[in-house]
Amino acid sequence: FDFNGNGGLTSTGAITIAAGSNLAVEFGNSANGSIWQPTTMLTGTSVTGTFDTTNANDYLFLDIGVSYTATEVVVDVDRNGVTFSSVASTPNHSAVAAAVNGLANGNAVYDTFATLKSARDARNAFDLLSGEAHASLQGGLTSGAGMTRDIVGGRIRSSFSGIAARTMDQTTTASIGRFEPAVKAISARTY
User: Fold this and answer.
1) Cβ(75)–Cβ(1) below 8 Å
2) Tens of pLDDT along 18-71?
3) How far is CA 167 from CA 144, 152, 155, in A?
4) pTM of this prediction?
């Protein structure tokens, strides 16, 4: 079942949920509809059976409940006790967590954070909003600039007769969490 704002499935007849059936709740685009309202996912003249399992434990910040009436199956989503700040690993993460927590549910940013599945996903999202990934990339580019300066200087020195250029080997690799810059390694040798 995907909370995409389209509502659930309505049958003009009886609905039977077979033994062993699994319910997978997904949040494709949580901004399209309110995930915080109980949502009727199945409606029929009658409903028999229940889902044996759900993926409710897949979400770090949510409790997902399923309830049954004689004619409906309803999915209800609530925040659990895991706070955004509990998975923050840097001061910047903590600042972003506090800012996101200050938003109301129903806000697209808040809802997106609430539907994350792991602490790693949350930390990556904190990095994106805090600018930490940008700062890490800037640091990698700055260290690469020194290498570029040395290469250019060596080439200029070698172009003058009688002045020997120094030899150097350098490799720089930058990695930012799950994001990798377009140039992962730069190798240079000057003579």
Assistant:
1) yes
2) 999 999 888 876 555 578 888 899 999 999 999 998 898 999 999 999 999 999
3) 17, 12, 11
4) 0.65
